[in-house]
Amino acid sequence: MRLVKMILGDVRFQFKYGFYFIYAVFSTLYVFLLLIFPETWREKAASIMIYSDPAAMGLLFMGAIVLLEKSQRVLNALAVSPVKVSEYIKAKAVSLVFISVLVSLVLALMGGLKNIPVVLITTALTSIIFTLLGLIVATKISSLNQYIIATVPLEIICFVPPIIYLFVPTAIMQWYPLNGSIALISNSSQDPLYDIAVLLIVIVCLFIVAQRATAKMWRSLGGIKL
Q1: Is the CB of residue 175 less than 8 Å from the CB of residue 161?
Q2: How far apart are CA 3 and CA 90, in angstroms?
Q3: What angle do CA 159, 120, 134 make, to 5 degrees?
Q4: Taking the CB of residue 40, how many other CB atoms lie within 10 A of it?
Q5: In the chain, how long is the greatest CA-to-CA distance?
């Protein structure tokens, strides 16, 4: 029950600070672009849009979310409450999955992607990965500029290989963990169960790292170690 309340609290937080409005605008823009693209481009264009934006929302916005929570003393209150670090992370991940999947559904339908359930499941798993990556970075920064600079290498590592793999699916690139994500979204995966299993393993590993990083941040809130 406490986790559900935290998820709803995060959804209200994201709504209050305009996340849903921003993605309504972005979705409209993406749909417009998909409609003017030649029909033969739409599936790949929709796959890139889904992978690099709604699925990656956590990496793009987690810095701002954590800094807002720090400025409003939300984290200070959570640090001395019965809330567990794992619940905090799960609430962040699930609340962002909700909006990611919603936007992805619109883009998948407009882009003519096949196997919509797989697209939505993959978007949810990829969204969790990017949220955990964003949270790990956000626990170590004190300004938005620091976050942007710190995430640039991550964005290159996470975005470039999968987009290349979408157009040039060589056997050696199949081993890169995130390439399975874009292959599942574009319905070009050679082994969907293997690709999903890899994404789940990545999530477990990142969750452990995020839990340690967040616990360390909570212990040092206010400039002192609690």
Answers
A1: no
A2: 8
A3: 40
A4: 8
A5: 58
- Per-position DSSP letters for 42-75, written without gaps between them: HHHHHHHHHHHTTTTHHHHHHHHHHHHHHHTTHH
d(CA 153, CA 147): 11
> Among residues 166, 147, 127, which one has the least CA distance to residue 66?
147
Per-residue DSSP letter, 175: G
Q: In tens digits, what is the pLDDT along the chain, a chain of 226 residues?
A: 788 888 998 888 888 888 888 888 988 998 999 889 888 888 899 999 999 988 888 888 888 888 888 888 888 788 778 888 999 999 999 999 989 999 999 999 988 888 899 999 999 999 999 999 999 999 888 888 888 898 899 899 999 999 999 888 888 887 888 999 999 999 888 889 999 999 999 999 999 999 999 988 888 775 554 4
Token reading at 58: 């956590």
Would you call 168 exposed, middle or buried from its count of C-beta atoms within 10 A (0-12, 13-18, 19+)?
A: exposed
The count of residues in the chain is 226
What does the alpha-carbon distance between residue 76 and residue 134 come to, in Å, rounded to a whole number? 20
Question: Which residues, 6 or more positions from 65, have their beta carbon under 8 angstroms from its beta carbon?
Answer: 13, 14, 92, 138
Which tokens is 137 given? Answer: 């970075």
Question: What's the distance, CA 153 to chain centroid?
Answer: 16
* Cα 41 off chain centre by: 25
User: How many beta carbons lie within 10 A of that of residue 19, not counting itself?
Assistant: 19
Terminal-to-terminal C-alpha distance of the chain: 27
Contact yes or no for 108/184 (Cβ under 8 A) = no
